[in-house]
Amino acid sequence: MTTWTFDTDAGRAALEIASEYADRDLLAHSIRSYAFGARYAQQHGLEYDRELFYVAALVHDLGLTAPFDSHTLPFEEAGGHVARVLTAGLGWPAERRARAEEVIVLHMRDDVTAAQDVESHLLQVGTSADVSGLRVAEFEPSFTAGLLAAHPRGRFGATFLALVEDQAERKPDCAAAAYVAGGAAVRIAANPLDRPAGDAA
């Protein structure tokens, strides 16, 4: 069975930290986001830094958790700082730590191409697929079914919407506020990943 883990010191540390601070549904979302992004890269023949992408994917939403939620910074920027601190402890050089932060910050945008920044693009693809079902039809049904069986969605959609709506209310100028205003609730509710298999409604 595929476990969608990355077995390096950095990968194990990212999984450990994410497991400690994210609840079950948010942790599973982070793993699925990595898996969707990595599969997309494989399908499109994209070369990327797998360890960097895995670490960024695993900790990208920790800025939504109470210990790391900033009263001033958007959650993606707070999550980027978590990545910088984590990777500093792992001995990553400053430039690589900055890249981990950048990948997380840019995942809230949808205009970064693979040619511009492949890891940021993959995190956009992975998170968008998992949150709202964008591009899900491009993945093999067997891949998606296996991923959901290994890392079930639980109440992720409703939980994530509540978290970003809270961010939007408290930080009206952040990207989460624009995301909510742009119809996040409708897109999350329509995610085909939350419909029973074979339900085309």
Question: Could you walk me through the main structural features you see in this protein, from its secondary elements to its overall organization?
Answer:
The protein has 201 residues and is mainly α. It has helices at residues 9-21, 24-44, 50-59, 75-89, 94-106, 118-132, 141-150, 156-170, 175-181, 184-189. The protein is globular and about 45 Å long. The model has no long low-confidence stretch (mean pLDDT 94).
Offer a quick outline of the entry.
The chain has 201 residues and is mostly helical. The chain has 10 helices and no strands.
Distance from N terminus to C terminus (CA atoms, Å) equals 30 Å
The radius of gyration computed from the alpha-carbon positions, rounded to a whole number of angstroms, is 16 Å
Instruction: Give the biggest beta sheet.
Output: none
| Number of helical regions | 10
Please identify the structural class as seen in this structure: mainly alpha
Instruction: Please trace the helix and strand order, writing H or E for each element.
Output: HHHHHHHHHH
Helix content: 55-70%
- Overall pLDDT confidence: 94
Total strands: 0
- Contiguous runs where pLDDT drops below 50 for at least 5 residues: none
Q: Overall 3D geometry?
A: globular
Give the DSSP E fraction (strand runs of 2 or more residues): under 5%
